[in-house]
Prior knowledge:
By secondary structure, the protein is mainly α. The chain has 1 helix and no strands. The longest helix has 19 residues, at 9-27.
Amino acid sequence: YIQSNPFPPSLSLSLTVHNTKVRVFILT
Length: 28
């Protein structure tokens, strides 16, 4: 999941990790 956005890299990474966790939670 890579998307251009105005967020700083650290925040962007945090959002990506969060989205991944949510996705895994939904799939399980």
